[in-house]
Write a structure and sequence with these properties.
The complex is a heterotrimer.
Chain A (H helix, E strand, L loop, with lengths): L3 E4 L2 H6 L3 E3 L4 H14 L1 E3 L17 E7 L5 H18 L9 H18 L9
Parallel strand pairs in A: 1-2
Antiparallel strand pairs in A: 1-4, 3-4
Helix pairs in contact in A: 2-3
Chain B lengths: L1 E8 L2 E4 L4 E3 L2 E4 L1 H8 L5 E9 L5 E4 L1 E5 L2 E5 L18 E7 L1 E6 L10 E2 L2 H6 L6 E9 L5 H20 L9 E6 L3 H7 L5 E9 L5 E5 L2 E2 L6 E3 L1 H5 L3 E5 L9 H5 L2 H9 L5 E10 L3 H18 L3 E5 L5 H15 L3 E8 L20 E6 L3 E4 L4 E4 L3 H6 L12 E4 L15 E5 L1
Parallel strand pairs in B: 1-9, 2-4, 6-24, 10-12, 14-19, 14-20, 20-21, 21-22
Antiparallel strand pairs in B: 1-13, 3-4, 5-12, 6-11, 7-10, 8-9, 15-16, 15-18, 17-19, 23-25
Helix pairs in contact in B: 8-9
Chain C lengths: L4 E8 L16 E3 L5 H8 L4 E9 L1 H6 L1 H15 L3 E4 L6 H18 L3 E5 L6 H4 L4 E4 L7 H16 L7 H4 L7 E5 L4 H13 L29 E6 L3 E3 L15 E4 L10 E3 L7 H5 L7 H10 L4 E8 L7 H17 L4 E5 L2
Parallel strand pairs in C: 1-3, 1-4, 4-5, 5-6, 8-12, 8-13
Antiparallel strand pairs in C: 2-3, 9-11, 10-12
Helix pairs in contact in C: 1-6, 3-4
Classes of the chains: A alpha+beta, B alpha/beta, C alpha/beta.
InterPro entries (chain A): GrdX-like
Protein name (chain A): GrdX protein
Organism (chain A): [Clostridium] ultunense Esp
Chain lengths: 126, 428, 349
């Protein structure tokens, strides 16, 4: 298995097999990613979205890769910064549960794009 | 390449029997426009409305803004590769209905934002309060998948811009602007002592509602690519981006890219403008490395002295922005970055998601979390329910009388990262 | 002519003309007159406002009896109901600066009356109050009084009259750290082109978004043989002997402490935390969770390390100014180096 998807998005769980499903929040997904990166797994996709609006999302899917002997310091920096930014931006805001289904859909679509970018034939892998 | 942008100043939009421009008034035959767009069988219903500067009108949720134009000389009318046949853009004459804009509205997903207020406080914050807006509210047929839905709305806007633009075909323009830059060799020979400058324009390229297109090619699929500035001014780049209302680059802003125009104004005087590199902002870290290395390589190959880099969005694109900056500065190429900030509602937080000591020259488009208070509108074009979404995220943002407190984040073009608008942030 | 706005002034025993260090223990008092700098300040108001009285308090008294001092001071201010309160200028005086800052914070928060103070940029009081009060930037010594008072008076005048303050560098106050969105004269792309041209022509330019500067410290070379090394334990977790004998502050620390732990196997039993920045339940249950003296001693017994250093160093990290942190670090580092310590375990919370 080359890639693993860490997600709390039920759509992604349904669609893909190589999923580490988190029963929890966006932040829990970030924390899981942090733990995995410290274990030496490659961080494949950036933990944050590309706009403020996507930070309101209840769901997030992030791709990690293979485990290495050495920890990648750049990956550590990215995930730690992302957690800080996520918390900063959620201060005084609420997660947008009203549109949860839409966020699940878009997160899943963005995940597909990421996997396509990785030339990974999804639905087949484990 | 030589491109003439011929501006016909539009002072009002009316509905009427024929679509035409007379004495600066654009008249649109609504039925004809609707029928034309309904050729696309994915469209169930279209409402067409006009919003004029100063009217107490709110448009929401805006998907894209497009400038209506017609090419009267040279190849490639419209948006080649997307709505018309492929052609080389950048040369010829274009008649522009300057001051008019096609605004598409359509909530592809419920959390979409993007507000244009035509009057009062809200008008200050968006450049599109100053244009006469022909607003298309597009409802697709049921059961359309989200990709087709997005494409339908995107295409409808482009086609409408072409349809309306045709009204300017035989109208004498009020002003004619000429944009001409020759080959690198020619320009360098002409201006041997001027510093060579490139513009790197980053595009969100991440998937559904997060896309941009160059001659119809999804920017996700490209390596960074070099354009003649005229190509973008002539319609080569269009927006498929429905998030990041405040700092996304609408199609209108590609057609009128302010960095390109302001660099053009200095070309041959203080600098030698060598072109535009379009750089995709991808989701994968490997992809980001590839893009940033490749962008820096292009700049080095062309041998430029300075580069302006503009971002699109906030969050993971901050990494790309600073990675490109680092690579260029380390190669001895001077950079200026244009971005916006996310320094919290009180303005006290760290403004970017990433930092780099090499980023010594940065232009800020303002704080996306800056709170603005928008009074209720007399008329809402689009989906009034989306107003609650704008206010969403925190308590007490939607008052009983309809007054809305929202972050600039929701306002189209407010904190433009191509420097299209006038906002900045200062330390107090 | 509009009614004059009322200013209440705060100074320490020295500027209140009571006396020097020997009077630093004096309790706060109130005089319905302009004392010391309040006099010069009053004339700088150009008749638009007036100082109605001066509060005076000893620096030591304030810092050691903060609650009592504040209670009195707030009551006086409440009773006299000024439009604005002025504290200092404190220049670079640490204790005076802390008093000016704490009073400013309390007055704004509890009485909702605006406060203007004056400080040198490195005054430890600055971080306590700059986001809530307006602090004029002064020189580091009282020699800058003549320059500071008109600046402060101008700030006071504007705030009292409800005028908006301009940029910090224009008005002479220290930035509060708020990035506000404003309109520029030129659009962003134009500013970018001009900035690039300035860079290309080696002219001066000013970034609109300065990157944060991080103070990085190069790590010391690795210890070659741990079994011969002396290791010290230092914490910013506020662990102190029960009763806090040196009265280390629970936030915005002004000092650090060192305690002989050579005879102990663990901190647990005689130590507790006074740190005001976290829930102390688990730390107090087992203080070694914050500063693991127990493990260090075990490693010493096992011979894994040569020796656990006999003194344990401690302070509180929360709210402590960068200036003080650098000072503490330098002082503690010097002692440890002179004592021949090879390595330090530094814990934070």
């Amino acid at each position: 298995m080359k890639y693993r998807i860490v997600t709390n998005n039920p759509l992604a769980k349904k669609e893909f097999h190589n999923v580490c499903f988190i029963e929890g929040s966006y932040e829990d997904v970030l924390l899981k990613i942090r733990d995995l990166v410290y274990e030496g797994l490659d961080l494949i996709s950036h933990p944050l979205g590309a706009s403020m609006r996507m930070l309101y999302s209840p769901y997030r899917s992030i791709v990690v890769g293979q485990k290495n002997e050495a920890i990648d310091l750049f990956h550590i920096e990215i995930i730690e910064n992302s957690i800080m930014n996520y918390r900063k931006n959620l201060e005084g805001r609420k997660i947008d549960w009203v549109h949860a289904e839409d966020y699940a859909l878009i997160d899943n679509e963005l995940l597909k794009s990421t996997l396509e970018d990785l030339e990974f034939s999804f639905n087949k892998g484990i | 390449m030589k491109l003439e942008l011929r501006r016909i100043h539009i002072k009002d939009i009316q509905f009427g029997k024929t679509t035409k421009v007379k004495d600066g008034v654009l008249t649109v035959n609504k039925e004809e426009l609707i029928n034309k767009l309904k050729d696309d069988e994915r469209i169930k219903d279209i409402k067409v409305d006009v919003a004029r500067p100063g009217e107490k009108v709110r448009i929401i949720p805006v998907k894209d803004v497009i400038e209506p134009r017609v090419k009267i000389e040279g190849s490639g009318n419209g948006f080649p590769g997307v709505s018309t046949k492929m052609a080389q853009l950048g040369e010829g004459k274009v008649n522009i209905l300057y001051g008019a804009a096609i605004v598409t509205v359509g909530d592809i997903v419920g959390f979409q934002e993007g507000v244009i207020d035509m009057w009062g406080e809200g008008a200050k914050w968006t450049p599109f309060s100053k244009t006469y807006n022909l607003v298309l509210d597009i409802t697709p047929v049921e059961g359309l998948d989200p990709h087709s839905h997005e494409a339908t709305v995107r295409l409808a806007g482009l086609k409408a811009a072409e349809f309306v633009g045709k009204a300017g075909r035989n109208v004498e323009p009020n002003e004619v602007l000429t944009y001409e830059i020759g080959s690198h060799a020619e320009e360098t020979k002409k201006y041997p002592n001027l510093p060579k400058v490139l513009y790197v324009e980053m595009l969100i390229s991440q998937g559904l509602l997060h896309d941009g297109y160059i001659y119809g090619v999804n920017s996700q699929k490209i390596l960074p690519t070099l354009l003649h500035p005229n190509e973008e001014l002539d319609g080569a780049v269009i927006s498929g981006n429905c998030v990041a209302a405040c700092d996304k680059i609408t199609t209108y802003q590609h057609q009128n890219n302010s960095v390109i125009l302001d660099l053009y104004a200095q070309h041959g005087k203080t600098l030698n403008f060598m072109g535009v590199i379009l750089a995709p902002e991808l989701t994968t870290l490997e992809g980001k490395f590839r893009t940033c290395d490749y962008t820096a390589k292009l700049c080095k190959m062309i041998g430029v002295d300075g580069v302006i880099i503009s971002e699109e969005g906030y969050g993971n694109p901050d990494s790309d922005l600073l990675m490109i900056c680092k690579r260029l500065e380390n190669a001895g190429i001077k950079t200026v970055l244009i971005t916006d900030e996310c320094s919290g509602r009180d303005g006290k937080s760290q403004p970017l998601a990433d930092t780099a000591k090499e980023a010594v020259a940065v232009v800020s488009g303002g704080n996306v979390s800056h709170v603005v208070t928008l009074p209720p509108a007399d008329k809402v074009i689009g989906n009034a329910e989306a107003i609650a979404t704008l206010a969403g995220g925190w308590d007490g943002a939607l008052l009983e009388d309809g007054t809305l407190m929202c972050e600039l984040n929701a306002v189209i073009g407010a904190t433009s990262e191509i420097g299209y608008h006038y906002c900045t942030a200062k330390l107090y | 002519m509009a009614e004059k706005f009322k200013v209440l002034y705060y100074v320490n025993q020295f500027f209140g003309q009571i006396g020097g260090e020997d009077k630093a223990g004096m309790e706060p008092m109130y005089k319905e007159e302009t004392v010391g700098p309040a006099m010069g300040f009053n004339s700088s108001l150009k008749g638009e406002g007036e100082v109605i009285g001066t509060l005076i308090c000893g620096d030591n008294y304030f810092n050691e009896n903060k609650e009592e001092a504040l209670e009195y001071i707030l009551k006086v201010i409440k009773d006299n109901n000024p439009d604005i309160v002025v504290t200092g200028p404190a220049f670079n005086a640490g204790r005076y600066g802390m008093a000016c800052a704490e009073i400013a914070k309390a007055v704004v928060k509890e009485l909702n009356i605006p406060v203007v103070s004056g400080m040198y940029i490195e005054n430890p009081g600055l971080d306590v109050c700059k986001d809530i009060a307006i602090v004029a930037e002064t020189s580091d010594s009282a020699a800058g009084m003549r320059k500071a008072l008109p600046v402060m008076a101008n700030l006071v005048r504007k705030i009292a009259k409800g005028e908006e303050l301009g940029l910090p560098e224009e008005e002479g106050y220290i930035p509060q750290g708020k990035r506000l969105t404003v309109f520029a004269e030129k659009r962003g792309s134009q500013r970018a082109v001009e900035m690039l041209l300035a860079r290309l022509n080696d002219e001066e330019f000013q970034t609109e978004l300065p990157m944060p500067v991080f103070d990085t410290v190069d790590p010391a070379p690795a210890i070659k043989d741990l079994s011969k090394a002396t290791i010290a334990l230092v914490t910013s977790g506020g662990m102190v002997p029960l009763g806090n004998p040196d009265r280390i502050q629970s936030a915005s620390a002004q000092k650090w402490g060192k305690y002989d732990v050579s005879g102990r196997d663990a901190l647990t039993g005689e130590y507790c935390t006074i740190h005001g920045g976290f829930d102390p339940v688990y730390a107090n249950e087992l203080p070694d969770r914050v500063a693991p003296l127990d493990i260090l001693k075990e490693l010493e017994k096992e011979g894994y390390i040569g020796k656990a250093f006999e003194y344990f160093y401690t302070t509180t990290g929360t709210g402590t100014s960068v200036g003080n942190s650098v000072k503490f670090g330098t002082e503690i580092g010097k002692e440890l180096k002179e004592a021949g310590v090879d390595g330090v375990i530094l814990t934070s919370t």
